[in-house]
């Protein structure tokens, strides 16, 4: 039974059977030709038996595996590697079908390659998940055909692997490396000129080549009889909280990824950047009540805690209650902090309903309200109108776009920092805002 389960027929065998059947039909018309289809039939049986012996004579003719990370990064292209080793003494033709999770809704993950005798080959493809959660991979199916190409033998590798999809840790690592090497400007992040002298004294040390001569401590130099300089460090240990709205307005999808997932990915990156910049990072998620709270810290395991908390975030499609957020922040976050509020306002009226709570938050903390441009509506407006109905639709779309700009002006007028961004540029623009506020000494 195992042999029959792994045995498959190629198209070539059906073509051969069809040709033999045609020859038998022709032999009924011409009696002298009966010997030809009979000879072809026995030759065909011999080739089928030979092909089967070639494929099954070697017990483990092919070795293979699917190599991938223990977890996938949401919203990113994750590399999936496939390695194959041919143990047959002849070249084989391979058809590879990978059973990827149903969440991807793809039916095109199959490949055709030739593999020489004793050769090994590795290739890869990419998967981009757009939802967090557990993804179940099936088997890696490889159909092996000999040079005769009549039959195929199926091998199965790396069966039933469960892989979690976490918030975008690949994006987090990318910006972490850029922040450490001071190359954030290469990805479009602005270099902000520091205004004033927002530095705090750390120690006095001996002068070495390259030190700023303006920091020479003349009194210490006179006492020690050689140059001494003051060493300063940036003000540190400021608290940076990401406040994530999980209400129904955050379920709108752009490029397959919901606004909630964009906010979660950006929160993970900005938290990591803040810790690398010697600040403390924390998380607060809410709907009609507070869902999760990770107190601000810069301990070694803080990013692990934040990653696990963000992985489990879901929405119940409820309206967000900003009064609950204000009461919780007043009770739990006593130190002045930078609050990055990820939400979405569809109209000026929806913002004005929450404005009293936003004003109260901004009195005790530095509040930045981050909300989103509708990129699909913007692209719709840019298309020419072909008829009167489309003109009306464009006018309504332009009204919605204009209201987003009015929201920014209204928040700015009340002294609240506002950031209107496209979902795709959320992470970069949030980092820019954070660096700008630090350079201005506002946190």
Give me the secondary-structure category.
Answer: alpha/beta
CATH superfamily of the largest domain: von Willebrand factor, type A domain
CATH third-level topology of the largest domain: Rossmann fold
- Count of DSSP strands: 21
Between the first and last Cα atoms, what is the distance in angstroms? 71 Å
Q: What percent strand?
A: 25-35%
Mean of residue pLDDT values: 88
Please state how the strands of the largest beta sheet are arranged side by side: 18-17-14-19-20-21
- Unreliable sequence segments: 192-198
For the largest beta-sheet, the strand count, sense and barrel status come to:
6 strands, mixed
Core attributes:
443 residues, Rossmann fold, alpha/beta, Immunoglobulin-like, transmembrane, five-stranded antiparallel β-sheet
Explain what the structure shows.
The protein is of the alpha/beta class. The protein folds into three domains: 1-166, Immunoglobulins (Immunoglobulin-like, Sandwich), CATH 2.60.40.10; 169-193 and 236-439, von Willebrand factor, type A domain (Rossmann fold); 201-234, no CATH class. 38% of the residues lie in helices and 28% in strands. The strands form six sheets. It has a six-stranded mixed sheet, with helices on both faces. A five-stranded antiparallel sheet has the order 1-10-9-5-6. It has a three-stranded antiparallel sheet with strand order 2-4-7, with no helix packed on it. Strand 15 (253-254) and strand 16 form a beta hairpin. This is DUF58 domain-containing protein. Pfam families: DUF58. Residues 205-369 form the DUF58 domain. Keywords: Membrane, Transmembrane, Transmembrane helix.
């Amino acid at each position: 039974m195992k042999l029959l389960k792994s045995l498959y027929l190629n198209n070539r065998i059906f073509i051969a059977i069809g040709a033999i059947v045609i020859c038998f039909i022709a032999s009924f018309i011409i009696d002298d030709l009966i010997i030809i289809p009979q000879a072809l039939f026995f030759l065909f049986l011999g080739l089928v038996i030979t092909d089967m012996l070639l494929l099954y004579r070697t017990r483990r003719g092919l070795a293979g595996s699917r190599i991938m990370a223990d977890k996938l990064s949401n919203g990113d292209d994750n590399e999936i590697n496939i390695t194959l080793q041919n143990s047959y003494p002849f070249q084989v033709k391979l058809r590879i079908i990978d059973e990827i999770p149903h969440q991807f809704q793809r039916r095109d993950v199959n490949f055709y390659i030739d593999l020489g005798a004793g050769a090994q080959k590795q290739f890869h493809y990419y998967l981009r998940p757009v939802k967090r959660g557990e993804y179940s991979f099936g088997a890696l199916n490889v159909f092996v055909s000999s040079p005769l190409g009549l039959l195929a033998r199926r091998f199965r590798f790396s069966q039933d692997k469960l892989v979690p999809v976490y918030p975008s840790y690949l994006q987090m690592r990318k910006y972490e490396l850029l922040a450490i090497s001071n190359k954030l400007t290469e990805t479009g992040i602005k270099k902000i000129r520091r205004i004033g002298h927002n530095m705090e004294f750390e120690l006095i040390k001996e002068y070495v080549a390259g030190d700023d001569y303006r920091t020479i401590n003349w009194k210490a130099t006179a006492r020690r009889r050689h140059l001494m300089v003051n060493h300063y460090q940036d003000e540190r240990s400021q608290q940076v909280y990401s406040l994530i709205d999980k209400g129904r307005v955050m379920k709108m999808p752009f490029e397959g990824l919901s606004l909630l997932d964009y906010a979660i990915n950006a929160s993970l990156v900005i938290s990591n950047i803040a810790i690398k910049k010697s600040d403390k990072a924390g998380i607060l998620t809410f709907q009609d009540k507070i869902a999760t709270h990770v107190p601000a810290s810069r301990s070694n395991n803080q990013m692990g805690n934040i990653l696990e908390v963000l992985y489990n975030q879901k929405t119940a499609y409820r309206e967000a209650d900003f009064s609950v957020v204000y009461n919780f922040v007043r009770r739990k976050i006593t130190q002045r902090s930078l609050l990055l509020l990820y939400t979405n306002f569809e109209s000026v009226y929806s913002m004005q309903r929450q404005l009293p709570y936003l004003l109260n938050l901004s009195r005790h903390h530095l509040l930045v309200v981050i909300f989103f441009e509708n990129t699909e509506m913007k692209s719709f407006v840019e298309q020419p109108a072909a008829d009167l109905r489309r003109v009306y639709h464009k006018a309504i779309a332009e009204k919605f776009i204009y209201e987003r700009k009015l929201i920014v002006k209204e928040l700015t007028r009340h002294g609240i920092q506002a950031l209107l961004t496209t979902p795709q540029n959320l992470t970069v623009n949030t980092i820019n805002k954070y660096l700008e506020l630090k350079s201005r000494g506002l946190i």
